[in-house]
Fold each of these.
Amino acid sequence: MKELNFPFDGKDIIRRRLALKKALLSDGTVRVKKKVAVLGGSTTNHVVSALELFLLNFGIEPEFYQSEYNKFYEDAVFGNPELDSFDPDIIYIHTTSRNLTMLPESPAEKPESVQQRLDEQFSVFRQVWDSLTQRYSCPIIQNNFELPLFRRTGSFDGWSVTGQAAFIQRMNVMLSDHARTAQGLYIHDINYLSAVCGLAKWHDAEAWYLYKYAMSTAVIPDLAYSLACIIKSIYGKNHKVIDLDLDNTLWGGVIGDDGQEGIEIGPETAVGQAYSEFQSFIKGYKDYGVLLAVCSKNEKENAILGLEHPCSVLKPSDFVSLKANWEPKDRNIAESAEELSLGLDSFIFVDDNPAECAIVEGQLPMVQTVNLSNVHDAMYKLTRGGYFEVTSVSEDDMHRSEMYAANAKRAAQRKQFESYEDYLLSLEMNAVICGFEPVYIQRITQLTNKSNQFNLTTKRYNENEIKEVSESGNHICLCGRLLDKFGDNGIVSVVIGRIRGDQLDIELWLMSCRVLKRDMELAMLDELVRHAREKGIKRLNGYYYKTHKNNLVSELYGTFGFTRDCVADNGDSLWHMDIENYENRNKVIKIRYKENNDEQ
Amino acid sequence: MNNNEIVTRLNEVFRDVFGDPSISVTPSTTSADIEDWDSIEHINLVAAVENEFGLRFKMREVSGMKNVGEMMDIIAERGK
C-alpha cells in the first residue's frame, strides 16, 4: 500500500490507522500469521498500532501481546502465564535510555565503579534474553540505546569516565558484542534511528511525563517501520532484486545521444563522482545476495557500451538480467522475474523518471519502485526503505549472483543436447545429502522461511526449531547441496520427516527453484527412503498444503509414485507410498554423504 | 477561524481516529459519548488534532480538557 511505503507520512498513518488496517485486511493478500510479544520499558500502544500496519503491508499478519507498563524484566525473568499461553513467535524488547537505571551519578566515580555499573546494567538485559530464550526459544529483537538530548558537561559527556552519553555508547558496544555471538538475538539500532530523525525531534519530554512514551509520538512510525523491516527480514520477506534504469540513474546523461565519451561517470566531474559512488554502493549489495538487473529504454549495444565505460564500477557481468529495449518497462520486469524464477514482489525498480515509476506501479503494484530524483539521495532512500534489511549473512548470499550467472550458462548449454537426460548428465552433478550439520542450520532456516513455490507444506521454522528437530531421534532430517561443473548451488533442498511407528510423516519438503528440473528431488527421495528403511519404516506419508504460490508441486507426490488418499475442499491432499519395493529413481546425480568424502 | 470551521475540521479528525464516519461532535461532546475514546485513543486524538491545527497542547491542557468545547477554545486561540 502506497501510504505505508517509505517515505511515509507518519502523522497521517497514525490518524488514519483504522481505515488503513481495514483496507489492508480486505485486499485479498494471503499473509503469514505471527505472534509478536512486545515487552516494554515504556508505553507501547502506539508502537504496536504502527507496527501492525507495516507488518500487514509486508505480508505478515501479527497478533500482539503487550507487557504491562515497564514490566519487560518481570515478564521475561519471572515468567507470566499469559505470555506462556500466548506462545510468541518473536519477542520485541522495547527499552530505551529511560530504562538505564545504573547511569553514573558523580564525576568523582572511579573507572572501576563505572565499569561495575556497566556490568550490572548489562546483566539486567542479559537475564532478560537468557530467560526468554530458555522459555520460548524464539527470535528476540532488542533496542539499543539512544543518546540523551542534553549533556550537562557538553562534549565531555561523550568521552569522560562518568559521562552519560559515554555510558550509553559503551552499553551499545556491549549489546552488539553479545548479539554477534548469541543465537537469535537481533539489535534494533535506535541509536542510529534517533540520530537520523534528529535527537531534538526524537525526544519529547512531555510525551514521557504525560503518557510514558520514551520518544515523540511523531517518530514512532519511523521506529515501527525500522522494526518491521527486521521482522520481515527474519521471516525471509526481503526483496531480492534491484532492477535499475541506466540513463541518469547509473550515469549522468543519455548514452544513445551522448555516446560513451559523453556520459558522466567517474572522478572528472561532480556529477560523475556522485554516480560513481552510487554504482559502488549498488555493487556492494551483491555481497549480501541481492541480485542486480537492468531495465532500460535503450539499444542493447548502447546499454553495454555505457556499462563498459572505463570508469563504470558496474560491469555487464554484474547483472543477472539485462533488459535494454523499447518495450514497456513493466513487461521487461515481468520477463526478468520469470527468467529468474522469482516473484514480482522480490523486485525493487529504480528509475529517475517519475513517469516510468508510475507506469510500473500501475501495471505491477507488487513491484516496489524507487524514484531517484537526485543521485545523491538515492542511497539514503534505498537504505531507509529497508528493502534489503540484513539479519544474517550466509555463505550462500555472497555467491548468489555467481549462481544465477552459472544458471544462465547452463541454459545456454541445454540447447546443444539431444535429450534432456544427456544434458543433465553433461552437467556432472554431485549432491551432498546429509543431516542438518551445524554449518548449514542458518541456511536451512533461511530456506524454510523463504521458499514458497517448491514447498509442500510451507511450514516455517526458526533457528532453534531447526536445531531441535536435527537433534531429535524422532525425525529424519536431510538437506541437499548440489554442485555441478558450473558451480556450487549451495544447500537447495530440505526434507524433514517425523517418525510415527513404522511410518514417516513428511512434515517439510522444499527445494529452491533455481535447481528445478535437475532431478534433485529424486536424489532427495532416494536418500529419504534409504534412511527410512534403516529405521525400519515401511510407509511414507506425504502432505500437500495448498497455498497461492505452491501449485507447482501439487502433483509432486504423484510423480514420485505415491498414492493419493484424499483431497480436501481447499485443495490440500494426502498421499502415501510403501517403500519395501522402492527402487532408486535418480540416475543423473552422484551422491556423497559428507562434504569431503569420496562418492559412494 | 470561526467555530464552524473548527468543528468541521475537528469532526474529520475524530472520524479518522475512531474509524467511525457517523461521529458528529459538538462542544459538549465528552469521552463518555464516544465508545472507543479511552486514554490510549486520547493520545492518538491529541496527536492528530495537534497535527491538523498546527499547535501543541500544553501538558495541563492535555490532561485537563473536559469536553470538545474546551479543545475548540484552545484551537481558536492558538490553532492555524
Note: Residues 411-592 of chain A form a domain with the Aminopeptidase fold (CATH 3.40.630.30).
Amino acid sequence: MTGEAVISVRDLWKVFGHKPERVPRSAELSALSRRELLDRTGCTAAVREVSFDVAPGEVFVVMGLSGSGKSTLVRCLTRLIEPTSGEVVFEGEDILAAGPKRLRELRRRKFSMVFQHFGLLPFRQVVDNVSYGLEIRGAGRAERTRRAMEVIDLVGLDGYEHSYPDQLSGGMQQRVGLARALAGDPDVLFFDEPFSALDPLIRRDMQHEVIRLHREVGKTMVFITHDLSEALKLGDRILIMRDGKPVQCGTGDELVGAPADDYVRDFVRDVPRANVLTLRWIMRQPRPDDVMDGPELGPDVIVRDAARAVLAAGKPVKVVKDSELLGVVTDAEILGVVTEAGA
Amino acid sequence: MAAPSRPRRRPGRPVLVAAVLLLWVAVWIPAHGVHTLGLSPADLTPLHRWLNDVNDTIGANRNSSPVFLYFFNEIRAAVDALVTFIQDLISQPSFGRPVPVLGWLGVVAVVAYVSWAVANAKVALLAAGGFVFFGLQGLWQESMDTLALTLAAVAISLLIGIPLGVWAGLSDRFHRLITPVLDFMQTMPTFVYLAPLTLLFLIGPASATIATLIYAVPPAIRLTAHGIRSVPRPAVEATESLGATGRQTLTKVLLPLSKRTIVLGVNQTIMAALSMVTIAALIDAPGLGKTVIKALQTLDVGTAFNAGLAIVVMAIVLDRVTTAASERARPSGPVPRFRRPLAGGLGVVTAVCCYLSYTYVWAAEFPDGPGLGGALSRGADSVTAWAQAELSTVTEGIKDLITYGLLNPFQALLVESPWWLVGAVALALAGVLGGVRAAVVTAVCVGLLIGTGLWQDSMTTLAMTIVATMLVMVLGVVVGVWMGRNRYADRIIRPVLDAGQTMPAFVYLVPFLALFSATRFTAIVAAVVFAAPVAIKIVADGVRGVSATTVEAATAAGSSTWQLITKVQLPMAGASLALAANQGLIYVLSMVVVGGLVGAGALGYDVVAGFSQGQLYGKGLAAGAAIVLLGIMLDRIARTSSPSKTTEGN
C-alpha cells in the first residue's frame, strides 16, 4: 500500500470548543483522555492524532461506534468541517492550505460525497438533483442532462428521472445520492454511513451496488460505517476508531485474526471467523509425522472456501506461496474455526 | 410511596404566595383609602405638563431642527408618497380625475387574478366575492383606504424584513442580537408606540404606516430566519460538498427550501398589518378603522358592526389567499400543461377590466345598489335592541356576577391600598416566584409607575388585566386540555381559534358593546375573547406534546382520567401553561387598553384622550409608558414562575 497514495492524512486533529488549537499543540493536553480534556478545558476532541493513507482504487473503510469521530473525520477530509491541525494531502496537494476558491474547485471536480440522510432537494426532479453538481460548476443544460441520464442508468434508476425524491423509497433516494456523487466524475467518493438509514434488505442490495460500481468505475472510496459486517464486506482495509483515536488499521482478516486490543477483540467476537480468516491465520508448522503428499492451497484462501477441500483430502493440506511451504492445515484447524462460531 | 427528601427546605411556593396575599388583606383592612395617589381625569402632574411642552417644542422646531429636516421629515415624506400613490391607484380621486385610477371592477379583477396566480381558483372566487361585498356594504372607499395602507406597510415590512430574516438565518450572532429586539417589538401593546410616533411623524397616514411597520415586521424577520434555519442540514452539507458558493447555496437550496415558511411569514405580516392599520385610526389613519372608532365613540352599534364586518371579511380574504399561497409554495409535482395559456387569457381579461374601470364611470364608482350596508346596520341595531331587552336578565346576571364577585373586590383591594402596600406585595410575589432578578425589575417598575403620576389608573387597569387573565387561563386550561386529549375536539375547535386570531383586536369590541353596553366588563370580555385562542392553543399543544409513552405508562398503572390529567399531563405541560399565562397576559393587556374606548376607563382612556385633546397629550404619553411598565412587571413575574424552571439564570 505504499507508492502513490491518493489521500494521505497525517496527525489530524479536530477539537471543538474554545481555543481548540491549544490542545494538539500542548503535549500535556493532547495526552489527556476525552473526558479529562472536557473537564479541564471544556473542549471536545472529536478526532485525535489520526494518520492513514488511501491507495488509488482502494475502498478504505473507517469504522467506529457513534461518537467515535468517524463522521467528523470524513468531513475534515473535504473541509466541510475545518480540521484543527494536521495534514491532508490529496494527490500531492495540501488541502488544508487551499483557499476557498481552490477548495470549491476540488469539491466540484475531485471529490464527492454520499450522505446518510441523502441531502436531496425535494423540489427538484431526480434528473435535476443528479445534475445539480454539474449545474453549480456551470455546465450547460444539455450536457448536464446527458451526463445525468448516464449515471441514472448506471445506478439503476432509469425510468425514475422525472420523479420527485419524496415519491421514491429510501433505497432509491440513496441511489439518487449516489448518482449525484458520480455525476461529476470525481476521483474520490466519500460515503458517510450511506446505508444506515435503510432497512436491512435494501442495505444489502445497496452494498452489492457499491461493490458493483467499484468494479465498474474503479473509483477510490472512503467509506464510513458503524456496521462491522458492512466494513468487512466492502473494505480493502479498515480503520477502527474509538473516542476519536485510531485503534487499528488493517485488512479484515488482520482485524479478526490479530486484534490489536480488547476493544477490537470485543468488536470482532461475533464475526463468523470462517468467512473472514484465511488459511494464513490458522495454518501450523508441519510436524514430523505429517503426511506431506496432500493437495496445495494458497495462504489467502478464505477458510470457508478451503473447508471442503481440506476435509475431503483426509490428510494435511500444504499452504504454499511461490512454491515455498508456509505451513499445513488439517481437519482439526478447520473445525476449530468453523465450530467456534457463535461461541 | 413515602415522602422523599425534598430538595427545598423552606415552605413551598403556593404557601408563601397565600401568606403574602393574606397579609395584604390584613394590612388593607385598617390602611385602605390612604396614600392611594389618586389623580382625577382632568388633572395633570408636572411630568405631564413637561411632556406637553416637549410636544410643543418639537412642533415648533419641526421645520428647523436638522434631525427633523434631514431625517424624520424625509422618512415621513417618502412613506406618505408611497401611501398616497397606492391611494391614488385604488381609493382616492387622483390625477385630476374625480375617481381613482382603478375603479372597483379593475380592483376586483386584479385581486382575483393575483389570488389565482399565487394560490388557486377557489380563493380567487372568495377574494372577488369579498371585495364586491365591500362595495355592497357601501364601504368601498374606506376598504380601499385600509387596503392601501396595509399594502404600503406590508411592502416596506417585507423589503426590510426578508433581507434581515435571511441575515438572521445565516448568522448566529445577528440572530442572537435581533431576537430580544423582536421580542420587545411584539410584546409591547400595539397602542403604546402610537403616541411617541406622532411626536416624530405627526398624526396621519405616515405615522400609521410606521406604527404598522413596527408591529408587522417581526413575523417577516422571524419566519424567514426560521425557514432558513430549519433547512435540513444534509441538504446544505451536500450542496457544499459539491462546491457551491455561498450565493449558490442561498439561491438554489436555502431560499427554495424555506419558501413555504417565508410565505407563512408574509401571511403573518399581512394579518398583523391589517390589525394595526385599523387601530391606527386612533391617530387619524383613513379607512375602516376610523369608521369603527367613530361609531364606537358614539355607541352606534349598527355602523360599527357594518364596518367591523368589512374588516373581518378583509381579514378572511387576505388570510385565505396567503395561506393557500403558502400551501402552493410546497415543492410538488410538475405544473399542469394548461396553466400557462390560461394565465395569459385571464391576464387579458384582467387588463380589459382595468381599462373599463379606468374609462367608464359605471366600472369606476361602485353603483349605489341595494344598500346592503344600511340593511346590515339596521339589522345589527335591532338585534342589539332585542338582545338588550330580552337577554338582559342573562347578560346582566353574568355581568354582575363577574363585576361584583370578582372585579370590584379585586379593584378595591388594588386601588384602595396605599401605594407602598401594593409595591411591597408585588415585590414579595416577584421575589417568591421569580427570584432576586424579578424582584429588582418589579421594584424599578413600581418606582417608575409612581413617577408617571398615574398610579391609581394603573391599579384599575391592573385589576382588569388580572381578572381577565384569570378567566383566560380558566378557559385555556379547560378547553386546552380537552383539545389536547381529544383529536376530534381539536379538529373542530382549532380552525375557529385560528380564524379568531386573524381578526383585528377592535372587531371584538362590537358584539360585546351590543350585549353589555359601555362598561369595564365589556372591555374584559372582549379581552378574554381576544386572548383565549392563544392560551388555549398553547395549552393544547403542551398537553398533546406529553410523550405518548408516559401517558401509556400512567394508564397502565391504573390512573383514572382525572389523575392522568392532574398528575401527568398538566404537570408535564407546565412550561406550556406558563407560556400560555404569559402570552394571555400580554394579549389581555393590549386589549384592556383598547377597551378604553368602550368605558374601561383608566390607562386606556388616558391614552385615547391623549390623542384627541392637546392638553392631555403628555398624560396620554405617560399612560402609554405605564402600560409598558405594567406589561414588563407582569411578564417578569409570570415568566419566571414557570414550574419547570425553579432557578433563575440557568
Note: The interface with chain A takes residues 232, 234-245, 248, 252-253, 256-257, 331-334 of chain B (CB under 8 Å).
